[in-house]
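Dig into what follows:

_____
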Amino acid sequence: MSLVSARLSLGFSGIGHTYSHLFQPIFYVAALALEKDLNLTHGSVVMLVVGGNVLMGVAAPFAGWLGDRWSSVGMMALFFAGTGFGMMMTGFAEGPLMIAVWLGVTGFFASIYHPVGMAWVVRNAKSRGKALGVNGLFGGLGPAGGALMAGALIDLVDWRAAFYIPGAAVAVTGAVFLVFVAAGAITDSKVDRKPDPPAAKRDRVRAFLVLSITMLCTGLIYQATQPALPKVFSERLAEMVSGGVFGVSVFVAAVYLTAGALQIIGGHLADRYPLKTVYLVGFILQAPLLFAAASLAGTPLALLAIVMVAVNVGSLPAENMLVARYAPSQWRGVAYGLKFVLVFGVSGMGVIMEGVLYDLSGGFYWLFAILAAIAATAAAVCFLLPAEERRPAPIAAE
């Protein structure tokens, strides 16, 4: 594996991470306009994206298997082309059914990124925590840029432009990616730049069971929070957003951009300290933050939302390193695929929970209270992860 190929792989993996998180935040901001355009309740509108969310998860293991057995590079090319096409067609769709269908197609192709792209990062990185943290920053740019772009395009053009313009950008990036592949600048590799010693079978089974629960909890919190933030900001920050979709999108973008940037700190901590400790602290912090969000409004809510989401995604480098640590390298794509069945597939039910609780209660108190309980449950389960030795800090060269 050449250094140029490794760097280009990490670069395109970061860009892909941004694109993989575009269609959902775009839709959740667009939902504010679709409620009026389609004459549907908030809960009914967010149901349109559930199929895409679920497919983004349940198709992930198959995508990971193809990445492991066939080609990571080939699967990434399919990701760019299919995701871009699905987003463009969503922008041209007529009626709720076709919007849901094309969001489903988008989610199906977007499912490729996480099992293939994460395994690609781990394989090409020497400092995995740092690389996953930077990759997480790019992931944070997706919700941030998607929300901001959607708000601007909806106010300037319409909700359709919020899908077909970024969709075209994704497709063009795929074409550029293929140029590098054809030139031989990006190549496939099945060997880690910095392999880990194999974990004991008993620890693998134990970690798999514990992580299945904690990753499901992480996914539920993330999936339920994402559609909630635009709506809760439009209601509780009404004076600050001036009643416009773009004003809401600015606050949503600020939350996810800051949270994405803080993943670099999470990756740094994951490189220096036991992964179990970093992961556990993330859940312990989330519970009181989520419970506080149930009642706050105005500036305190905006600031709390940044910290709340930052802690949720800031533990992802540690989580992804735990998956890499306990999964055999030749099955890593499948392992990440199984993770995202939980994080995007099963946890996609968090979107339904958000919509149903809002329509029933007319607010977000119970949603955030339930999410706080989910975080507390994950913290308790996290104690059962296999113990790790404390990692010594790197010694500076003299």
User: Anything to note?
Assistant: Confidence is low (pLDDT under 50) at residues 390-398.
